[in-house]
């Protein structure tokens, strides 16, 4: 799906734009999955209790590779909210060893949509899901590149 | 777990934080409390992250587990002190 003329600033106000925006992230993942031959699945519910789609963008995208027990969760922020950083990533552990059968290592990315945040997101997802960087290497990259953007 | 239980857990967590850490997260806890108060019955796995505007690592995560009555609510405040220290050092 090609989205070129949509205004991403109001993606939270219009379900059609929201869904198109969401497809940008699914397309990005699908491109990577095809190129590097992996499969992944959503691991969170995207539905509200009444069965309608949850469109709060927290997260707007999530996927999990069971084989490696690694996941990616993207939280998209509307552009009109004051932000000093346009993209920031960090690692999180979803679950608790004491209570849960499975804990998931997550790459969490908060971003305002832009071409540069899209490129960086793709690079981070590749590093995490394809290149399988260990946590310390990944955190180093996330810290360095998030800060780099912050200074721009 | 009722909404009241969720709010109680949030308050218990707040009590465990230092004054400085709590100040950083006061607004985030308010957002998390609003989410819990507005939530209906949830029987699905969800995560909601309420993050600081300037540093997303400062956050309150609500982890909602599938199959719990109201919410399998694990409330995690991630201190990320090590990362924050790194962040500060790099700045």
Structural class of chain B: alpha+beta
Trace the largest sheet of chain A across and list its strands: 1-2-4-3
- Taken in chain order, the helices and strands of chain B follow as HHEEEH
Helix content of chain A: 25-40%
How many distinct helices of chain B? 3
What is the string of SSEs of chain A from the N terminus onward?
Answer: HEEEEHH
Describe the structure.
- The complex is a heterodimer of chains A (152) and B (91).
- Chain A is of the alpha+beta class and 152 residues long.
- In chain A, 36% of the residues lie in helices and 18% in strands.
- Chain A has three helices and four strands; from the N terminus they run αββββαα.
- Chain A has helices at 15-36, 115-130, 135-151; strands at 61-65, 70-76, 87-94, 104-111.
- A four-stranded mixed beta sheet of chain A has the order 1-2-4-3.
- In chain A, strand 1 and strand 2 form a beta hairpin.
- In chain A, helix 1 (15-36) crosses helix 2.
- Chain A is globular, with a radius of gyration of 15 Å.
- Chain A starts with 14 loop residues before the first helix and ends with a helix.
- Mean pLDDT of chain A is 87; it is low at 1-5.
- Chain B has 91 residues and is of the alpha+beta class.
- Chain B contains three helices and three strands, in the order H-H-E-E-E-H.
- Chain B has helices at 3-16, 19-38, 81-90, and strands spanning 46-51, 59-65, 72-78.
- A three-stranded antiparallel beta sheet of chain B has the order 1-2-3.
- In chain B, helix 1 (3-16) runs antiparallel to helix 2.
- The longest helix of chain B is centred in the first third of the chain and has 20 residues, at 19-38.
- Chain B is globular and about 35 Å long.
- The model of chain B is unreliable at 67-91 (pLDDT under 50).
- The chains are: A alpha+beta (152), B alpha+beta (91).
- At the A-B interface, strand 3 and helix 3 of A face strand 1, strand 2 and helix 3 of B.
Write a short abstract of this structure:
The complex is a heterodimer of chains A (152) and B (91). Chain A is globular, with a radius of gyration of 15 Å. Chain A has helices at 15-36, 115-130, 135-151; strands at residues 61-65, 70-76, 87-94, 104-111.
């Amino acid at each position: 799906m090609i989205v070129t003329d949509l205004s991403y600033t109001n993606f939270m106000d219009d379900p059609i734009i929201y869904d198109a925006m969401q497809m940008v992230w699914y397309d990005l993942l699908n491109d990577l999955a095809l190129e590097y031959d992996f499969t992944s699945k959503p691991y969170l519910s995207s539905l509200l209790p009444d069965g309608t789609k949850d469109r709060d963008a927290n997260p707007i995208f999530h996927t999990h590779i069971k084989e490696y027990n690694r996941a990616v969760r993207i939280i998209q922020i509307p552009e009109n909210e004051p932000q000093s950083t346009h993209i920031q990533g960090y690692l999180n552990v979803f679950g608790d060893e004491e209570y849960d059968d499975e804990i998931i290592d997550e790459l969490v990315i908060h971003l305002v949509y832009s071409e540069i945040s899209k490129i960086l997101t793709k690079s981070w997802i590749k590093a995490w899901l394809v290149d399988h960087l260990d946590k310390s290497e990944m955190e180093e990259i996330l810290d360095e590149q998030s800060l780099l953007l912050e200074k721009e | 777990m009722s909404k009241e239980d969720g709010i109680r857990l949030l308050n218990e967590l707040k009590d465990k934080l230092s004054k400085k850490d709590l100040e950083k997260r006061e607004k985030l806890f308010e957002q998390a409390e609003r989410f819990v108060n507005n939530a209906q019955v949830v029987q699905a796995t969800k995560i909601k992250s309420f993050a600081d505007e300037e540093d997303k690592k400062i956050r309150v995560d609500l982890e909602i587990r599938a199959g719990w009555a109201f919410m399998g609510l694990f409330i995690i405040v991630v201190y990320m002190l090590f990362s924050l220290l790194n962040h500060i050092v790099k700045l």
